[in-house]
């Protein structure tokens, strides 16, 4: 039996889910989710946000229950700690740095790079690097760090994911486009400047504020843990 998640409009308001961008930046397809303008900022209709967030949470619950793979994408530097904490608690694979072109459309190549990274890590941990000179070890260390930055979050990704959970649909458009091309479902937070139709499960809400994204991630965690 799936956990029933309750969403309170007052709490959503306190977390700042209702703040969009300037009206001039509002995406035409996002307009149905906008309640009005306040102090020069588009304001989301939180009743509609609530409805869409509940649908997205139900879908994530379904995917987790069926042991499907969800790749979490959050490349905004300010979201780094939130993404890492969420990924650690849920075991979701994740992307926090720039989306690497081909992560989905050329997955076999990306997988080779990830496997090479895991091999280097294993070699270092097993003491195999002792045979190298100090200079060679320093070079390997540098290479390992470079690969860690790119691939640490993808270590558990054995196949193309079943879905992407994108925290900023506007910023990570390349990831969304690759998902579309590969038939991978998209669940995503859509701020007022992005196209909600690019996600099967759009969450129209503020994603340029930590408190708003944290609220959404906490509700997802509550539903699946």
What is the residue-mean pLDDT, rounded to a whole number? 95
**SSE arrangement, N to C:** HEEHEHEHHEHEEH
Helical content stands at 40-55%
Number of separate strands:
7
- CATH architecture descriptor text of the largest domain: 3-Layer(aba) Sandwich
CATH topology of the largest domain: Rossmann fold
Q: What does the overall shape look like?
A: elongated
CATH superfamily of the largest domain: Glucose-6-phosphate isomerase like protein, domain 1
Determine the oligomeric state from the structure: single chain
Beta-strand fraction estimate: 5-15%
Question: Could you please describe the fold and organization of this structure?
Answer:
- The protein is an alpha/beta fold and 225 residues long.
- It folds into two domains: 9-104 and 160-224, Glucose-6-phosphate isomerase like protein, domain 1 (Rossmann fold), CATH 3.40.50; 107-151.
- 44% of the residues lie in helices and 13% in strands.
- It has seven helices and seven strands.
- The strands form two sheets. A five-stranded parallel sheet has the order 4-3-5-6-7, with helices on both faces. Strands 1-2 form a two-stranded antiparallel sheet.
- Helix 3 (80-90) links the parallel strand 3 and strand 4 (94-95).
- The longest helix has 20 residues, at 46-65.
- The two termini are 13 Å apart.
- The model has no long low-confidence stretch (mean pLDDT 95).
